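Bumping my old thread because nobody answered last time. Still need a sequence for this structure:
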C-alpha cells in the first residue's frame, strides 16, 4: 500500500518507504477492507461508516498507532478516524485493532489536507488531536511545520462548536511556536487560560518515548483549545 496524496509544493512530512513486517503486510490484506477509507471514495458519511451516531475524534499523524490503540480501547463510546502517511504504522494499527475486534476505528493512508478537502464533512469531530508532529528543527525548514495559521483555520471548520483541538509536542521551541499560532488564530479559546499550556488530559496515553524522555528530564507540552460556538 502507498499513501494517497495530491501534488503539493510544501509538505509537513517526508514519505519514507520504511520496511513493513510480514504481519503489517498481512494486516492490509485482512483488515484494510474493514478499517480502510480512500481519498478516491470522496465525501464520507461517518454515521453510515460506523453504523451509529457517536462522539467522533480525528487523529492526524498517529505514527505507529500505539497510543491511538489505547484510546480506541479506553473510549469505546467514541469513533476514531486516523490519518497517517506511513504504511508500517497503518499496518500495525489495523492489525492490532483487528486482533482486538475493535469497531470504532477507520483509517486513511493519505495526506490529511487532501482528506479534509475531499472526504470529511465540516463540523464532524468533537476532538481533533495531533501528537508529536515533526518539529522540523532547522530554521530553514520551519515553514514545513504542520501547525501553521492557515492549517489551524482549516482544522477549525471540521471541529464541532465546543469541540477541542489538542496538540502535544516534546520539542519546546515547537511548543512555543504552537502557542504563538494558536493564540493568534480566531475562533479558539485556550482551555488553560491565555498563553498557558494545559496538563496532559487523562485520555492521552503516555507513550514509551515520553516516559523515556521524562527520565532524561525532557518536557512535554500539551495545548488544548476549544472551538468557540456562536454564543460564546
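Sorry it took so long. Here it is:
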Amino acid at each position: 500500500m502507498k499513501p494517497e496524496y495530491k501534488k503539493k509544493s510544501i509538505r509537513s512530512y517526508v514519505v519514507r518507504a520504511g520496511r513493513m513486517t510480514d504481519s503489517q503486510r498481512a494486516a492490509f490484506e485482512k483488515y484494510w477492507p474493514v478499517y480502510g477509507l480512500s481519498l478516491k471514495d470522496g465525501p464520507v458519511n461517518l454515521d453510515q461508516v460506523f453504523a451509529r451516531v457517536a462522539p467522533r475524534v480525528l487523529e492526524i499523524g498517529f505514527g505507529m498507532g500505539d497510543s491511538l490503540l489505547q484510546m480506541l480501547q479506553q473510549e469505546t463510546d467514541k469513533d476514531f478516524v486516523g490519518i497517517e502517511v506511513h504504511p508500517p504504522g497503518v499496518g500495525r494499527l489495523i492489525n492490532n485493532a483487528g486482533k482486538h475486534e475493535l469497531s470504532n476505528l477507520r483509517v486513511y493512508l493519505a495526506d490529511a489536507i487532501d482528506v479534509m478537502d475531499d472526504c470529511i464533512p465540516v463540523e464532524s469531530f468533537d476532538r481533533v488531536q495531533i501528537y508529536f508532529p515533526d518539529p522540523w528543527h532547522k530554521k530553514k525548514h520551519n515553514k514545513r511545520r504542520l501547525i501553521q495559521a492557515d492549517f489551524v483555520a482549516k482544522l477549525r471548520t471540521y471541529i464541532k462548536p465546543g469541540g477541542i483541538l489538542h496538540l502535544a509536542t516534546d520539542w519546546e521551541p515547537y511548543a512555543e511556536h504552537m502557542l504563538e499560532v494558536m493564540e493568534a488564530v480566531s475562533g479558539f479559546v485556550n482551555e488553560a487560560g491565555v498563553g498557558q499550556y494545559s496538563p496532559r488530559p487523562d485520555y492521552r496515553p503516555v507513550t514509551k518515548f515520553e516516559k523515556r524522555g521524562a527520565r532524561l528530564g525532557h518536557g512535554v507540552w500539551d495545548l488544548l483549545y476549544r472551538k468557540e460556538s456562536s454564543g460564546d
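The longest strand covers residues 159-169. Let me know if any region looks off to you.
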